[in-house]
Amino acid sequence: MTMPGNSAPAALHAPIDARDRPPSSVYGPVAWMRANLFNGWLSSGVTILFGYLIIRAAIGFVDWGFLNAIWTVPALPNGNPDPATCRAVRGTGACWAAVGDKWRFITFGRYPYDQQWRPGICIALFLSLYVMSAMRQFWRKELAFIWLGILTLIGVLMWGGVLGLRYVPQDEWGGLPITLILATFGLAFAFPLAVFVALGRRSTQMPAVKLICVLYVELIRGVPLVALLFMASVMLPLFLPSGMNIDKLLRAQIAIILFVGAYVAEVIRGGLQALPKGQAEAADALGLSYWQKTMRITLPQALRLVIPPLVNTFIGFFKDTSLVLIIGIFDLLTSGKTAMSDPTWQGSSTEIYIVMAIVYFGFCFAMSTYSRSVERKLDSAHNR
Hints:
Layout: H1 29-36, H2 41-67, H3 84-88, H4 97-108, H5 117-134, H6 142-159, H7 176-201, H8 207-221, H9 225-235, H10 248-274, H11 277-285, H12 290-305, H13 307-320, H14 332-340, H15 349-383
Helix pairs in contact: 4-14, 5-6, 5-7, 7-8, 7-10, 8-10, 9-10, 10-12, 10-13, 11-12, 13-15, 14-15
């Protein structure tokens, strides 16, 4: 019986009895562990073995990295840090004091010490640009102008020479800003290049363009990035007119753009080939032009299909920016390795490598997490 003014039965508002819930052996964490970790004697043995190894490794790392670690060291009479404290615990505890002493050099490289606030602002601008670009409410035409404005501001801050800022040549740049510059400009220019190369390679009406795209992709994919960097650094100046010189960082950036563009083009071409022919035929039946059909019908669907391999290529490319050390550019990894050469902190390379690994992992994990969220949103919209 229902009360006056209440259209729903009282039983619908009653709390769920514990007896009505599914048993823990069927639903819940216990059921998941039984189905995935302990569903047989072999699975149980492997789970116990790996669990033991993980716990032992975690305990050892906590003991080395935190309990017995050295975070600060006293200063010598000349003002330099005293490494004797770290040497006393070498092998049993970490020396994070080395990271604390060298973090500015690792982050900013040889950039003038009193001007390092400028690359620090540039790092913050890069991060804000990434976050803004990841938010769908900013996916408008104005985002291109925001990118142009922020990248121009970053160039002004890094170079200087205007607005009362001291001029800093590119030979003195280094650290994390170099890694972000190479990765950001590399992706920003390589992606549109890859789209046009993928479309050109699938062209049936322009055989000359198709041949050029095929040769470009096969040539770039047939040589390692190290070879391209050497060619850009050593051989490219030989083909330039007398008196013309392109900065070393710009030459490395061009080599990276060409390298990434070839790999991304093949990923996009795979997505275009995976689309049913009916999509293009339906666009032709509607009377759409080639570029309308491509930009509104086929290309968006192809990019949705290849999000995982695209992000995998981007992650690999972000890590490959560390290869510029072979031509003398001080990226994050090169700055860290140079910091290890300080005799004061010899033996503390593990700690510095751990910090740099955390930085690389943070950026790569952020890209991976964001790509999974985009996949879920697009799949839900597609399956609705």
